[in-house]
Automatic annotation (TrEMBL):
Residues 7-292 form the Aromatic amino acid beta-eliminating lyase/threonine aldolase domain. One of its GO terms (molecular function) is L-allo-threonine aldolase activity. One of its GO terms (cellular component) is cytosol. GO terms for biological process: glycine biosynthetic process; L-threonine catabolic process. Pfam families: Beta_elim_lyase (PF01212). PANTHER family: L-THREONINE ALDOLASE, L-THREONINE ALDOLASE-RELATED. This is L-threonine aldolase. Its cofactor is pyridoxal 5'-phosphate. It comes from Actinoplanes philippinensis. Belongs to the threonine aldolase family. The lineage of its organism: Bacteria, Bacillati, Actinomycetota, Actinomycetes, Micromonosporales.
Length: 381
């Protein structure tokens, strides 16, 4: 008997619903290079208003958004400060250097969040006018933090980073591929996050479930320049209407339902945590990292065994595997996946003690913000 495959590798695999397909079928086919794609214009206007930005530009991918923003905001020959685990540093294959001529100053933190004090330490007492020092052009942030199991970057912390950066004349960018997950998890408005940066992107292909696309958001000036670079990079589209319509439909109809994916991920995590084989923290959003170091196999081997049992995962962070939840995985499938993984783990000899792990005993206060505004103004004026 063949088992039904449950693919938890990424939320990029979420499929368009019938209603989204209908929105695509009824979208116009105007040419966006001539400014005649009504659906693309509607998407851009909607996104700019939603995040409180002056202007928006539809992009084929989040990676292209990131690369173009990097090129404009950091500037050729300068450096970007970026937490070491962020997508820019880990998944974009040195393109910062190859395409934008920008060096990544990758800062390792314990929790995945760059803070004003860690940014200050990374720059050191470097005076920016000394010719031998790299000039820091940009501070890079990411929300949710995908390499940290979809953690939400606290709004207050991002606000502190923005204050610090502005004080030092450094621009801030937000790679908000999953920013709508942060919005859903915190009950905040998108505009609240829009205020924490000079420019940002949002991806439609993750949990929002559209087949492709991202949007770049910023000032009129910034978007004007980005439009020129989008042409350079081959990302200017002609009949983008159907793809923009899918993106707008996703934003309007799928943003609220992301909370269901978060609930599914939390439930999956709690089932795994009840078994002695995994160490699992309660997820903030739709990504679960399960530590498998109690098992006598590598994360890669565990992924292979899990696939044979009908659950596809990805190995992450040396000791863990990740599972991502989206519209394809309602709660009964999440539970079935967890049960299969527990069965797989049961067939692998454990390496150490079998103390039960309970994530609800291990929850810390959600990512405390240590920099008060008072301390902030004392230190940085
Ligand atoms: C997926 C992702 C990207 C890249 O988006 P693509 O549309 O796949 O190019 C960038 N940053 C983060 C945090 C992501 O999760």
């Amino acid at each position: 008997m063949s088992v039904e495959l449950i693919d938890l590798r990424s939320d990029t695999m979420s499929r368009p619903t019938q209603a989204m397909l209908h929105a695509m079928m009824t979208a116009d086919h105007g040419d966006d290079r001539f400014g005649e794609s009504a659906a693309t214009r509607a998407l851009e206007d909607h996104c700019a208003a939603l995040f409180g930005k002056q202007a928006a530009l539809f992009m084929p991918s989040g990676t292209m958004s990131n690369q173009i923003a990097l090129r404009i905001l950091a500037g050729h020959g300068r450096e970007v400060l970026c937490e070491a685990g962020h997508h820019l540093n880990v998944h974009q294959a040195s393109s910062a250097a190859a395409l934008a001529g920008v060096a990544v100053n990758a800062v390792t933190t314990t929790d995945g969040f760059l803070r004003p004090e860690t940014a200050a330490r990374a720059i050191g007492d470097r005076a920016r006018w000394i010719a031998e020092q790299p000039a820091t052009g940009l501070v890079w942030t990411e929300n949710t933090v995908s390499g940290r199991g979809g953690r939400v970057y606290p709004l207050a912390l991002l606000t502190d980073v923005k204050h610090w950066s502005t004080h030092h004349g450094i621009a801030v960018y937000l790679d908000g591929a999953r920013i709508m997950h942060a919005v859903a998890a915190t009950g905040t408005t998108p505009a609240a996050w829009g205020h924490t940066n000079d420019a940002m992107t949002l991806s439609f292909t993750k949990g929002l479930g559209a087949p492709m696309g991202a949007v770049l958001l910023g000032t009129e000036d910034f978007i004007g320049t980005a439009r020129r670079y989008r042409q350079w990079y081959g990302g200017a589209l002609h009949q983008s209407g159907p793809m923009a319509a899918a993106a707008l439909w996703a934003l309007r109809h799928n943003s609220a339902r992301l909370a269901e994916d978060h609930a599914g991920a939390a439930f999956f995590a709690s089932v795994l945590a009840e078994s002695p084989h995994f160490v699992v923290e309660r997820p903030d959003t739709n990504i679960v990292h399960a530590d498998v170091s109690r098992l006598a196999c590598t994360p890669g081997e565990f992924v292979t065994r899990a696939a044979a049992a009908g659950v596809r995962l990805l190995p992450v962070r040396r000791t863990s595997v990740r599972a991502v939840f989206d519209v394809r995985t309602p709660r009964h499938r999440a539970v079935r996946a967890a049960e299969r993984l527990i069965a797989v783990a049961g067939e692998v000899r454990p390496v150490r003690g079998t103390a039960r792990s309970r994530w609800w005993d291990r929850i810390e206060a959600p990512h405390p913000v240590t920099v008060s505004h008072q301390a902030h103004s004392r230190t940085w004026g």
